[in-house]
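Example record

Each entry pairs one chain with its bound ligand, heme C.
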Amino acid sequence: MSKHVMSIYTVVLGSLLGASILFSGCSDVGELNPPVYKTKLPADEIRNSAFKNEFPLQYGYYERNNETQVMTEYNGSVNYNKHNNADPLPEGYKHAQPYLKNLWLGYPFSYEYRSARGHTYAVEDFLKIDRINRYDEKGGLPGTCWNCKGPKMLEWVKGKGDDFWAVDVNAMRDKLDVKDHTIGCANCHEPETMELRLYSVPLQDYLKSQGKDFKQLARNEKRALVCGQCHVEYYFLDKSFGPAKKPKFPWDNGFDPEDMFTYYQDQGECRVKGFEGNFVDWTHPVSKTPMLKAQHPEYETWINGTHGAAGVVCADCHMAYVRTDDKKKISSHWWTSPLKDPELRACRQCHSDKTPEFLKTRVLFTQKKTFDQLLIAQEISVKAHEAVRLALEYTGEKALDYENLVIAAQQMIRKGQFFWDMISAENSVGFHNPAKALDTLASSQQFSQKAVDLACEATKFGISKDLAKDIKQIVPPILKHSRKLQQDPEHMKTHEWFKYIPVLPAANQVWDGQKKL
Ligand code: HEC
Ligand code: HEC
Ligand code: HEC
Ligand code: HEC
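Structure tokens for the complex follow.
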């Protein structure tokens, strides 16, 4: 690992020098050491507004995170209801994965899943999402969910230590200010000096396990790790593995999907045959498969991609240096798609010989190829659940080792869907690592197809004819579903797969944002 750090360091030195030549005549930002300040802020300051007077320039850019209109081909900052293809979509919306609700059935992600927008909305959007239960005083999710929503964590973890993680998520609902305590300055900076720091416990734990000290790392490694506090794959510990619901990063074997999948195989309390000891997020009710849900692995995807390997970090593209009115150069604190800038200035710090059109075309080239394969992987994953459902309910003559074949098929469902999700949940649609994205999707398709084949074999191919048609005819996409709709018996008759989840008891909404109704 230290070799990796060294090489990043060298390249960074090179690219920073490159950048400072480009910006010749500008002030301090291209230099090796970051500026150190002496502020009047106390060491435990966490309110965003407290930083405004000391750093009006960075704060001004920070406020641009409120911009929420502009879309790009696949991303942008409009928090549309992702991929359900049913709600009115903003103009310009083109690409939907129609099967998300099928693949996450029985898990709150099937209720609502939105596209990301700026950091300034993190708390507000979190409070609205149907994934935390608003129909019960208790949310049913652990306080850990707050970990990536803002600097309030510093206070909560200091106060409660490892007892914090398992508190009910709704118990903290009204204990923070939606704007002043959303993702902000204290998540990445020491208030007294503005040096970069980590607030994140799981990332600190990981570095410690590697014998590393954040303070001693190269500047550019820090400029990526501050994002790696949240833009990563993670899970919450089962209680026999440490403090219940404490977040952990599954990186002991490495950063590739296979490494993380292997890691999860012995990190949980699952007792289902064939999945003993697995870490499990939920059991898919249709195929009865113990599943994993992946979360936004930007850091792990980027790290060994073209740019990551070359030492180009998150901040280079998402926090490019900008010149302010009085000619001062600062890091943009508007974390958003670099493609929203028609000039693609962030990219052209380095690719100064290329036009914005050329660069954009290259990004879209990767994204289109990735999205096409993502859709195929998604469909085979759906087919795999259906195949195992049919095998489980099969009444004809079965293969001698029927039971083992069905278990093997379920294992392939778990793996195929996790690999699909590692790219689906990753927010760059392949750009952060084109080769790994396509490799992961090809693997996903192979694993899921293997699940279909094994299920067919288990029934001596008795179910094969039922799976021969186009997937949209066999299993239509579930486009509408929510916690409220699951309370409606009529809605629950609209899709064959709904019979595998319970109709919820009728209930009124208890929470609206921070308000108790
Ligand atoms: C997600 C992490 C993150 C957050 C949140 C954040 N910053 Fe930064 N900030 C950075 C990074 C990365 C740099 C670049 C440091 C470097 O180049 O060594 C930086 C640099 C700075 C600098 C040094 C000068 C410059 O512009 O490069 C100042 C001052 C600063 N930030 C102020 C703020 C303020 C004020 C806030 C809150 C409104 C804030 N930051 C929020 C990550 C963050
Ligand atoms: C404290 C956790 C946290 C940290 C640290 C963090 N992010 Fe985020 N980021 C989020 C969350 C949560 C969202 C989605 C917010 C929403 O949709 O309400 C997000 C959204 C984004 C978006 C999408 C914005 C848009 O316009 O759609 C980008 C880009 C981004 N982050 C980049 C970064 C970069 C680069 C860094 C490091 C400099 C970073 N983030 C650090 C949690 C974090
Ligand atoms: C070489 C430049 C580059 C680097 C380095 C980079 N990104 Fe990106 N990132 C992009 C591009 C280009 C996109 C695609 C934007 C789009 O589709 O509109 C993107 C997309 C994203 C998005 C989704 C943006 C949106 O509009 O919703 C997030 C979040 C993100 N990156 C976070 C990160 C994090 C975290 C890192 C470091 C671990 C990182 N990026 C490293 C260029 C970069
Ligand atoms: C800090 C410097 C830097 C920045 C900023 C940067 N790149 Fe790169 N880019 C590189 C380097 C270095 C390589 C690898 C070149 C090589 O190995 O020959 C590269 C390679 C590429 C490639 C070819 C490889 C591939 O993955 O397809 C593309 C396309 C590309 N960059 C696009 C972009 C875009 C778009 C942005 C802005 C979102 C961007 N770059 C920002 C330095 C940078």
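The radius of gyration is 24 Å.
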